[in-house]
Design brief:
about 210 residues, alpha+beta, GIY-YIG endonuclease, 3-stranded antiparallel beta sheet, 6 strands, about 20% strand
Length: about 210
């Protein structure tokens, strides 16, 4: 296993992203899991980004320490970065070492992400990325003959029927996701039992793949 720190640069505007990755193959084509860098690649095309391997380290701990040195609070506060969270944390060794269950860790990360990065997420250039992604989704739906539900409203009668029909569904054990969770290794997604131990090299959540 190789533990790497990499840099991705937007060749159009010079904006950068620093990330870490565990892999058996340095040239596996992995282009980051950060929300903003994924949106940027989807908007501008992967051909407009350059990836550099900055460090190849011997362990996950060394990788996390090196990321913490580079991706500091000062670094993520800059407007020319796609990073939203300071480095050095995350990964399953960190979760297990700190006694954090997966659900608790996800909640903690979500709270920090929301409070500390709201301004950056809502910056004009990132809002444009959101709009571009939604426009692409709507166009795909139109091309497939699915009419977007835009500028329309359900009638009160329809809403009442929908509420009545959904009662008791998708809750508790009736939910298809009950007792399971998604995990990803950065290229593949799969579901496991929520009580299972997450394998080395995998993390909670799903990789958002580009829409064809």
């Amino acid at each position: 296993m190789k533990y790497i720190i990499y840099k991705i640069t937007n060749n159009l505007d010079g904006k950068i992203y620093i990330g870490k990755h565990q892999t058996m193959n340095i040239d596996d084509g992995y282009m980051g899991s950060g929300k903003l860098i994924r949106r940027a690649i989807q908007k501008y095309g992967v051909e407009n980004f350059t990836k550099e391997i900055l460090f190849v380290l011997d362990s996950e701990e060394e990788m996390n320490l090196k990321e913490a040195e580079i991706v500091t609070e000062e670094f993520i506060s800059k407007n020319n970065t796609y990073n939203l969270c300071s480095g050095g944390k995350g990964g399953f060794s960190y979760i297990n070492r700190n006694g954090l269950g997966v659900s608790e860790n996800q909640k903690e990360a979500s709270r920090k992400f929301a409070y500390r990065n709201l301004e950056k997420i809502n910056a004009p250039e990132n809002i444009d990325l959101k709009r571009a992604a939604m426009a692409k989704v709507n166009q795909i739906r139109i091309d497939r003959g699915i009419k977007p539900f835009l500028g329309k409203k359900h009638s009160e009668e329809t809403i009442a029927k929908m509420k009545e029909s959904s009662k008791g569904k998708s809750t508790g054990s009736k939910n298809s996701q009950f007792g399971t969770m998604w995990i990803t290794d950065g290229s593949v997604n799969k579901k496991i039992d929520r009580d299972s131990i997450i394998p080395t090299g995998w993390k909670p959540g799903r990789l958002m793949k580009n829409i064809p």
